[in-house]
Amino acid sequence: MSIIESIKDYLAACPYLSGKEININYLSPNPDSFAIDNVAKNPIVKRYVSGETIRQYCFLLAGRVVYDGDLNSNIEISQFFESFENWISAQNEAGVFPDLADNDITPIAIEVTKSGEIQDTARTSARIQFELRLLYKRNN
Question: Is the pLDDT of residue 120 over 80?
């Protein structure tokens, strides 16, 4: 299983995304849909003399949510941002990471690197997104 598939399975277990459509590199125009998009960054964070490396897999979690511009809608979106970030932080602290079945990869951390934000709005929906990264150790 690829890293992005493992991340998709991991995020599907989040109570704030439960039952939501989660795609890879495609965000549906339907509200309550999400997508995991690759972000191009240097994958190697640290290289050891032994050949081991600490790597990062950077990605976006983008979503399409109901949005009508009123105060209650904005509060709901802000609460979602806070709840999701707290869930990621709690998972990280508990050592619960995506299942990387490859024996040469050991997850180290998963973290939000850029808080949730509203990217664009339409009359009935808004695109939101977070930037995240998975740090892992690769043994060569």
Answer: no
8-35 per-residue burial string, b: 16 or more CB within 10 A, e: under 16: bebbeebeebeebebeeeebeeeeebbb
The H or E element spanning position 83 is helix 71-94
Mean pLDDT of the chain: 91
Per-residue pLDDT tens digits for 39-50: 989 999 999 898
Q: Where are the domains of the chain?
A: 3-138
Nearest by Cα to 132 from 2, 1, 23, 10: 10
On the question of pLDDT at 11 being above 90, the answer is: yes
| Predicted TM-score (pTM) above 0.85 | yes
Q: How far apart are CA 55 and CA 44, in angstroms?
A: 4
In this structure, whether the domain defined by 3-138 belongs to CATH 3.30.2000 is answered with yes
* Cβ 4 vs Cβ 36: under 8 Å: yes
